[in-house]
Amino acid sequence: MTEELERADNDSPWKEILEAYFPQAMQFFFSQTAALINWERPHEFLDKEFQQIAREAEQGRRYADKLVKVWQIQGQEIWLLIHVEIQAKSEDIFAERMFSYNLRIFDRFAKPAISLAILCDTDLTWRPNQYSYNYPDTRFNFEFGIVKLLDYQNNWAELEASDNPFATVVMAHLKTQQTSKKPGERKTWKFSLIRRLYELGLQERDIRNLYRFIDWVMILSKALEAEFWQEFKQFEQERTMSYITTGERIGYERGKEEGKQEQGQTLVIRQLQKRVGELPEEVRERIQTLSLEQLESLGEALLDFTAIEDLLNWLAANQTT
Hints:
Blueprint: H1 2-8, H2 12-20, H3 22-29, H4 31-34, E1 44-45, H5 47-53, E2 64-71, E3 77-85, H6 94-109, E4 113-119, E5 130-134, E6 139-143, E7 145-148, H7 156-161, H8 165-178, H9 183-199, H10 204-217, H11 222-238, H12 254-276, H13 281-288, H14 292-301, H15 308-318
Parallel strand pairs: 3-4, 4-7
Antiparallel strand pairs: 1-2, 2-3, 5-6
Helix pairs in contact: 2-10, 8-9, 8-10, 9-10, 9-11, 12-14
């Protein structure tokens, strides 16, 4: 149970899926703001800027936050702060924290940000959307946009009919919550949602991205996971697919991947020290936060390094929040 709580609460899959499908996320969750944006111009994730204004940790909680630069149809630049509240319970100071981030962005960069929140909790009544105070001579009211994922459970047919990637994201999230004490039912829904990706006729890349999200949040026991793989392999064989999107194929067997990551960190650090000398502890810690994919990229890039500055430049360019 501990493993499930840790994994289900992790911000990593949300960050990955937001980066992969950011325009679709805006169109799905915040259509009015999305309508202001010229999507023909590239958007830019301002990870370094967000790091400068965000606390590294707030009472041990995990958040998926993205600060994004986009362009309005009229041509002006605007910044969007997208917050995903992953915690399974409501939080009294949430609205204050949303205001605080917005204020820090304006204070540091002189940029007003459109603040938006995706609430993943299980409390139907918790809908914070403003922070305000009122005194005789000073009044203030800060409002921000929210979507509540629980609201989509009454529109399941619309989710099933949608080809927007975030319809699948919401379906996986809701079914994960609904099957927290029903492991057999969760296995059935996990299979159904992954099979749906193929039935939608999605491209291989999209199937892999969405499969990764579903697989991460819809955690099964080892026994049920083994049953799931057998059923899914049979499904693949019956469809005579030209490629296989199983956990083994995309490198997503969890235990093996964790082992690979530890081995990858050790190997990369050893290679770096041969290239650029002893690494400061702070740099080692930064390397230990890299994903397996990032470690592989660093392993290739370090062959061209001649000094520790090359490593620091690579980390600055490639490390995300």
